[in-house]
Amino acid sequence: MQHPDCRIILRFMRKQGRIGSLLLFISCVLPAFSQSMKPVDIRLPKPMFVGTPQNLLVHNLEKPLGRPRPPFLAPAGTRNLALGKPVTSSDSEPVIGDLAMVTDGDKEASDGSFVELGPFRQHVTIDLLKPSVIYAVVVWHYHKQPAVTNDVVVQTADDADFQKNVRTLFNNDHDNSSKLGAGKDRNYVETAEGKLVDAGGVTSRYVRLYSRGNSGSDVNHYIEVDVYGKSLP
Amino acid sequence: MHRKTILWIGLFSAAVAAGAMLRLHDVRHRPMHADEAVHAFQFGGVLENGVFRYDPLEYHGPSLIFFTAVPAWIRGEKSLDRTDETTFRIVPVLFGLGLILLLPLLSRGLGTAAAVSAAIWTALSAPLVFYSRYYIHEIPFVFFGFCALACGTRYLRAKTWTWAALFGASAGWMHATKETCVLVWGAAAVALALVRFNAFVKKDDRIFHQEKIPFRHMMIAAASAAGISILMFSSFFRNPEGIIDSLRAFFLYFKRFSASSVHDHPWTYYMQLFFRHDPGRPVWTEVPVLVFAGLGAIGAFRTRRQGAWDGRLARFLVFHTVILSVLVSAIAYKTPWCALGFYHGCILLAGLGTASLLRWAGTAVRKTAAGLLLVIAFAAVLRQSILLNGRYDFDPCNPWVYAQTLPDVFSMVGKVETAAAESAGPVVVIMPGHGYWPLPWYFRKMKNVGWFGGIQENMPAASVILIAPELEQDLLQALHAEPPGGREKLYISLWKEELVLRPGVEVRGYQKIKK
Questions:
Q1: Chain A: closest CA distance from residue B408 (Å)
Q2: Would you place residue A35 in the very low, low, confident or very high pLDDT band (cuts 50, 70, 90)?
Q3: Is B179 helix (H, G, I), strand (E, B) or coil?
Q4: Cβ contact (<8 Å) for A56 and B335?
Q5: Does B262 sit within 8 Å of A216, measured CB to CB?
Q6: Is it the case that residue A97 has pLDDT exceeding 60?
Q7: Which of A51, A68, A146 shows the shortest C-beta gap to B473?
Q8: Local structure of residue B324 (DSSP, 8 states)
Q9: Which strand (E) or helix (H) includes residue A16?
Q10: CB A167 within 8 A of CB A198
């Protein structure tokens, strides 16, 4: 039994003859094929106007990794020793926020999550309360906007005044403008994953982080500092 | 003709010639800055639609865009594709030359020696040359500010309605160019008050008689200013909302300057621009201009009116320059071109300082020594100008360079054009925050380009992708997390080296593998 549509087509072909059927094929079927070969009309977005871009004028800048930082390997049992530990600073009266924010576990860049210290060279010092084996220090200065923090120096010591057994873990003050000695580490753009400094298992009680403004302003921001290691008994 | 007059005409002509050569030489050399490209696209919109729609939040007034119509019309360019860098940069070049050519208007107020000296300083000054080759609003804005000063000075001498109308029109053009005109007007009002106070203290009552202005002239000036402003912001009455927006802009800019921004810099920022030294690079300094401006400031207060220059105009220049520099330094939002307003005041004062030095020199021997000192200063400024506007015109060590596009852009564009020509698919550019400018300018002749501020679900299958490194992981996720994957979506690098759009902004390029 034939489908009703087929019967209609066959009846039409009988009526029109071979030439008529051919003309029908050319006029209806071929354009259908040619239509299928037309490029798809994709509406691409036009460029969006933006204001003056940021001027990231930083020498010796680290190349962006382009992917998440690879996992940092440390002995089992390593944890963030800085969480909730006391923090002191060269600027005891911050412009915004308070020093406890540096070790409160909040790594967001939003208002209320960072402490703003005054201009020029400033530092925060974290007392781990016990001598500890330190494997890594991770610092989040400010990542709300792309910025480069100037003269980042990370040190450890056995005393709060940084006189005994001082070791420098990271120093990107290439011209010694912070007067802590010239460093060879590279400048980097702040991101949400923070800057990881390999401490190599150094034993210390105090961790100090220096900075001297950033590429956008002369004040110093600290969102969070994590110190990964193990406390000694 | 008097021998001295011939000398002044000769020196002034030399200044104009030098200024023109420095401004016009290889004007296309520096890669387009993102701001230049945005303004060029705004002009492209006006070419296509015939209307300028003023945005009270960004991009400033319409005057720059409308003036660009003149070179485009002369060159017969009817669409953005047909334009090139010269069409756009010739506009600030002409306004920059105007800053030299209009100086004779001040020859009665400042004296011929000061006006001609100021012409030489203007012609050679590295920042004035740099921004005269830069398609942004700053040089036209400084030009109209200077017009207002010159016409205002001439009006106070002649008291004719023509000068009043020209003064008003200059103020109207200032408004139609940049919203920060209120800072210049505010500084001028305070400077005028200080000049009057100074005259009061010195019991110089001429100023009070001479500065009485007929109400009719005030109305003519106000009508000229309002007429120009309304005509421009309404885009010749085709966009009436622009008039209201131009007034709203003052409040919006006040809010913008109060909020934090990526352009916030310490109050010392502009001073740092005047002396810069990066390791391994030459020392750049504006010390010669500042020293002569200092001499001019001393001259402004030491000489009352002894035929050389009008002490009140000179003192106005000192007050205005100092107040404006304090105002713009107090605002956290800073870009190097915002220094031009008060820097141009320094240039005019440097002209006065030069005239003061020659006047104080007295004897022939001292005059020869002063002339020698001037030649050395002008030579140093000329050398710096040639370097900063030639070899170092995109180099981050140049203090006037700010978020400048680097020549890597030419390599990028060449490789993308070749790859796009080989395949029919679209080119997709993905940069966070739409930070891809000025690439739209360089790709303006390519029709099949999509511009994205981040990875989106509905992105077309591209034959070429340009992307910021920080978005690569998101792109991989978008390409390969969902089937079909495999060879259908395989891309290879378009370039192996690190290509940087501007300092700190790398762009990576990928081309789809052919089947």
A1: 16
A2: very low
A3: coil
A4: no
A5: yes
A6: yes
A7: A68
A8: H
A9: helix A4-36
A10: no
